[in-house]
User: What shape does this take?
Amino acid sequence: MCLAVPGRIVDIYDTAGMRMCKIDFGGVTREACLQALPDAKVGDFTIVHAGFALNVLSEEEAQETLDALRELGEIEDAMDGGAISGL
Assistant: This one.
């Protein structure tokens, strides 16, 4: 299973003829290929799989996804702490 986490494009550049970018995932920056998203620009949110930016998200879509992931993390923490029984 693959989990796509939204990140914000902070830099766009060319490397060996490939359109590349730096993406900030909440303080962790990673490089990704932007060839599939020719209209993407700095400040856009995107999701990345296997080093390729797949699509551009609105800030609202990105925030909804991040909120859902935080909720899942909180549920997992509660389950690990024994706060939820019978699951």
Notes: The helical segments are 59-80.
